[in-house]
UniProtKB/TrEMBL annotation:
This is MFS transporter, UMF1 family. It comes from the Bacteria. InterPro entries: Atg22-like (IPR024671), ATG22/LtaA_families (IPR050495), MFS_trans_sf (IPR036259). It comes from Halanaerobium salsuginis. It is a multi-pass membrane protein. Keywords: Membrane, Transmembrane, Transmembrane helix, Transport. The chain crosses the membrane at residues 12-34, 50-70, 82-100, 106-126, 147-165, 177-199, 241-261, 273-292, 304-321, 327-349, 361-382, 394-413.
Length: 420
């Protein structure tokens, strides 16, 4: 049992590690840096739109790769090796952001896409360990523990970087721009350092792959992927859940990726934006665990309903946002439900899939979210560019939550668990 706890804590430690990327790179410092520095020469709200399109390209690449990678990881028994590879890729791309300067929005987009490939690709293999390490422990609890650790770890490094950027002179740094560049390096170091427990303690079956060529390896992976896809109709309830998740998680992801640059566009100060997102992290930490308790009482599905209704209120209020106080308020409300919605979605899905095909099915889980993530930022960016006002972009995200609730209501969870 002690060894099992060590494995679970090592798994959660990876969420602590890579959530620094989510907080600093995805949600706060880089979007502001992209608008104010990398995209400083872009007119109007083009920097905001280009950031949205950058998200779309990044998600397209990982969406195309994720099912193949999931199937390959299951076949080879090399989930941990794949995880290590993508961590190195993500850490490298993140560190390269240090070299982005004024007007370099194309370079910033390229380095971000590289880093995001490492982040999103690594999460496929990280998520696939969940059913395997939760055999004698509540999967809702373990999933929520991971998200809670992520929010706390990501929040701590964000707090350090907030001080670094707002008071650069205290650290003998020449400017807040240089401090932002240094913050990208801190993410790379943090991510790599706290990934080490996962590299050491997560299980990896011993398997001799010496006689398997690279070409043959991918051929087998593609055949397995094709088999899973053609037989997905056997898991009708699981398929319905994926469609629902595809929609509402796209809405959640779009808010995470676009909220800060949207707030910067309407004139909210950088310190308020980063501070408010920091508040989100620390509220989300206990609330992710709280949602596990809520799920135990009302079921995970109903817990997700609760979170999505609150997200609808957030997007509607976001249209009228015009002050730092409004942004702080919305950030606090998002913190109440963000971790819970994500943790319960992951654990609910994990409870409905065949355990012996966890990486393969989490590959499909990744595809459903990554392809969906193509749509949200694109809708936001195109709506904002078409209307010349990003307020309509944030309003357009409401539909993702409404349709997600409708589709989720049609999922029979117990029937899904009986389908395999």
């Amino acid at each position: 049992m002690q060894a099992e706890k060590k494995t679970i804590y090592a798994w959660a430690a990876y969420d602590w590690a890579n959530s620094a990327f989510a907080t600093v790179i995805l949600a706060t410092v880089l979007p502001i840096f992209y608008r104010d520095v990398a995209g400083v020469n872009l007119p109007g709200n083009l920097a905001t739109s280009y950031w949205g399109y950058t998200q779309t390209i990044a998600m397209l690449i990982i969406a195309l790769l994720s099912p193949l990678l999931g199937a390959a990881a299951d076949y080879s028994g090399a989930k941990k090796k794949f995880l290590k590879t993508f961590v190195i890729l993500g850490v490298t791309g993140t560190a390269l952001l240090f070299f982005v300067g004024s007007g370099n929005y194309l370079i910033a987009s390229c380095f971000f896409i590289l880093a995001n490939l490492g982040f999103a690709g690594g999460n496929i293999f990280y998520d696939s360990f969940l059913p395997e390490i939760s055999k004698s422990v509540s999967i809702d609890h373990v999933s929520s523990l991971g998200y809670a650790a992520g929010y706390l770890g990501g929040g701590l490094l964000l707090a350090v970087n907030l001080i670094l950027i707002s008071k650069p002179a205290l650290f003998k740094i020449s400017s807040s721009i240089r401090a932002s560049q240094i913050s990208f390096l801190t993410v790379a170091i943090w991510w790599l350092l706290f990934s080490l427990p996962a590299f050491k303690y997560l299980p990896e079956p011993e398997q001799d792959l010496s006689d398997l060529s690279v070409v043959k390896y991918w051929q087998i992976a593609l055949k397995r992927l094709q088999f899973t896809w053609t037989n997905l109709h056997q898991y009708q309830e699981l398929w319905k859940f994926l469609l629902a998740f595809w929609l509402y998680n796209d809405g959640i992801g779009t808010i995470i990726r676009m909220a800060t640059i949207y707030g910067r566009e309407i004139g909210i100060a950088q310190s308020d934006l980063i501070g408010a997102l920091l508040l989100t992290q620390f509220i989300a930490f206990p609330c992710a665990l709280l949602f596990a308790k809520i799920a135990a009482k009302i079921t995970a599905k109903r817990g997700i309903y609760l979170a999505l209704i609150i997200y609808i209120i957030v997007t509607l209020y976001g249209y009228f946002l015009d002050s730092a106080f409004d942004f702080w308020l919305l950030a606090a409300v998002v913190g109440l439900v963000q971790g819970g919605a994500q943790a319960l979605s992951r654990s609910l899905y994990g409870s409905m899939i065949p355990a012996d095909k966890s990486a393969e099915f989490f590959g499909f889980f990744g595809v459903s979210s990554k392809f969906a993530s193509l749509l949200g930022p694109t809708v936001f960016a195109y709506t904002a560019q078409l209307t010349g006002d990003s307020r309509y972009g944030i309003l357009s995200i409401t539909i993702f939550f409404v349709l997600g609730i409708i589709l989720l209501s049609r999922v029979n969870v117990e029937k899904a668990r009986e389908e395999y």
